[in-house]
């Protein structure tokens, strides 16, 4: 029997062994040269932590709130698609792990369990991730279903008017199952002449004309808070404020859309400064260690979201694997806080980290 991993990265190798190559590549891969995929993790390595010593860290409080919901740690589950390709229990196992760890799961619109099935499986706080389709009536129906089934927020993905070029999927000619949430609303069974059916599916269904002005339409059809995911610049952060979103997620879609877009941790502070405390800012992309979470919070994120590590845990060991991934990150964050002199997440400040930019400034 394989040894229990000692960190989150250990689950990646277990997932690689457990999954058919086509599915492992689907989850692990990024766009084109995968520059941004590598940089999402590498950029964290260029930030150092500046600990304070001889402070009382006999009790560490990792709890925080997200849009008024109490969670046990500043780590949420990012929306990722098609969990049944990783494990037969799919999103139900992921949601139960989120519930067990007392954190929030963002369910992908492209899930392999329906949003209703996930809603009744446990009492986790759930948000629903939305792509806006050319047929707005279908997007509206999905939002209503999410609201009626107790989802607490809508996470609109803003960085995907078209599908990023994921060359492993094209090479593997990946064929993905129909989307459960769209059954009876839209046929997602696209036949292609070879290559991945994912590209054809996305470009056939998604609305590339969806823009900032349309957030008003979304606000008119739901009472739920709206988060915008995919912001990487101060200009877009200010736009998000203008149209009245409730929170921003700094994200490059796990490096699966535009290659050579910046690693998220490198632009987090720019977005935080532009927002100036008016709405919460979250981050996803490249978080693999408790120290990564610490660094993101020091640079102004209220919490982080993790995607691939959750999938790797799910592929390796089902619900238990997802729970272990979340527990590992929590334990590592607790240790990082303790060794840095922070007894609560509120005590993590900008002075606790040093970025490449800080190094340059100190030399001037």
From TrEMBL:
Cofactors demanded by this protein: FMN
SUPFAM superfamilies: FMN-linked oxidoreductases
Annotated Pfam families: FMN_dh (PF01070)
Keyword Ribosomal protein (UniProt): no
Record GO terms (molecular function): (S)-2-hydroxy-acid oxidase activity; FMN binding
Residues passing through the membrane, by range: none
Coiled coil residues, start to end: none
GO biological processes: defense response to bacterium; hydrogen peroxide biosynthetic process
GO cellular component, one term: peroxisome
Residues given in the record as FMN binding sites: 108, 129, 157, 229, 251, 284-288, 307-308
Ranges of residues in domain FMN hydroxy acid dehydrogenase: 1-358
Positions bound to glyoxylate: 131, 166, 253, 256
Subcellular location(s) per record: Peroxisome
Catalyzed reactions per annotation: 2-hydroxyoctanoate + O2 = 2-oxooctanoate + H2O2; a (2S)-2-hydroxycarboxylate + O2 = a 2-oxocarboxylate + H2O2; 2-hydroxyhexanoate + O2 = 2-oxohexanoate + H2O2
Keywords: Flavoprotein, FMN, Oxidoreductase, Peroxisome
Active site, renumbered: 253
InterPro entries: Aldolase_TIM, Alpha-hydoxy_acid_DH_FMN, FMN-dep_DH, FMN_HAD, FMN_hydac_DH_AS
Enzyme Commission identifier(s): 1.1.3.15
UniProt record similarity statement: Belongs to the FMN-dependent alpha-hydroxy acid dehydrogenase family.
Protein name: (S)-2-hydroxy-acid oxidase
């Amino acid at each position: 029997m394989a040894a229990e991993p000692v960190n989150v990265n250990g689950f990646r190798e277990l997932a690689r062994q457990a999954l058919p190559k086509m599915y492992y590549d689907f989850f692990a891969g990024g766009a084109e040269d995968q520059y941004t995929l590598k940089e999402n993790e590498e950029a964290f390595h260029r930030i150092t932590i500046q600990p304070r010593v001889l402070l009382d860290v006999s009790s560490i409080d990792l709890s925080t709130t997200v849009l008024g919901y109490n969670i046990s740690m500043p780590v949420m589950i990012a929306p990722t698609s098609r969990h049944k390709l990783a494990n037969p229990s799919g999103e139900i196992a992921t949601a139960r792990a989120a519930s067990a760890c007392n954190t929030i799961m963002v369910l992908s619109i492209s899930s392999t369990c329906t949003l209703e099935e996930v809603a009744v499986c446990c009492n986790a706080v759930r948000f629903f991730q939305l792509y806006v389709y050319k047929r707005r009536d279908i997007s509206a129906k999905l939002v209503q279903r999410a609201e009626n089934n107790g989802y607490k927020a809508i996470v609109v993905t803003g960085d995907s008017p078209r599908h990023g070029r994921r060359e492993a999927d094209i090479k593997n000619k990946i064929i993905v199952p129909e989307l459960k949430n769209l059954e009876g609303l839209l046929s997602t069974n696209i036949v292609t002449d070879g290559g991945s059916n994912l590209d054809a599916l996305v470009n056939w269904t998604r609305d590339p004309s969806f823009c900032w002005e349309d957030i008003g339409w979304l606000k008119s059809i739901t009472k739920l808070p709206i988060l915008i995911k995919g912001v990487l610049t101060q200009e877009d952060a200010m736009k998000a404020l203008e149209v009245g979103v409730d929170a921003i997620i700094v994200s490059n879609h796990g490096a699966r859309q535009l290659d050579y877009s910046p690693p998220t941790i490198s632009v987090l502070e720019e977005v935080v400064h532009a927002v100036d405390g008016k709405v919460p800012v979250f981050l996803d992309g490249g978080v693999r260690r408790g120290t990564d979470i610490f660094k993101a919070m020091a640079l102004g994120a209220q919490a982080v979201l993790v995607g691939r590590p959750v999938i790797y845990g799910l592929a390796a060991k089902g619900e238990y694997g997802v729970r272990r991934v979340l527990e590992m990150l929590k334990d590592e964050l607790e240790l990082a806080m303790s060794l840095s002199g922070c007894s609560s997440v509120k005590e993590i400040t900008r002075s606790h980290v040093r970025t490449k930019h800080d190094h340059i400034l100190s030399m001037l």
